[in-house]
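Sequence, structure tokens passed on for absentees:
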Amino acid sequence: MILPAQYKVDQVAELKQLFDGAEAVFVAEYRGLTVAQASALRKAIREAGGKAKVARNRLAEIALDEVGMAKDVVMMKGPNIYVVASDNSPAVAKAIKTFAEDKANAKFVIKGGVMGKEILSVDGIKALATMPSRDELIAKAVGSIASPLRGLVTVLSGVPRGLVTALSAIADKKKAA
């Protein structure tokens, strides 16, 4: 029986830890990117709340199996970078989509992704990228809740304001008389 090399076991464990609990994992080919472009990509992913990892496809496949996520061996060919979105997948998808659409980064090709048990196509990732981020959704929800309250406060403050105006008018009349 042939045992796998220890570094492979360690890398699978690291990938498993990275993939465990992730909302989504995006797969892209990075062959031909310059060091500056790769650094810019990693920075954009980090700012969006994601993590990027270059890994051997077979080891990534094993790690995805072990955490119970779907995999597509067709997109897992060639030199790939695995972009992991732990909790804000629309923002991370938007970051890689924006990077890929820049003509200077034409060699960066999004192949697909995985979201739980679902396999995402490139179009699925682009659709995910157009969704509002978690922060935008929270802001919209708070705005929706606050709007009726703001209207109620405006209506309720109108009654005392009208009373003060009426009393002021009466006081002015008595002074004049």
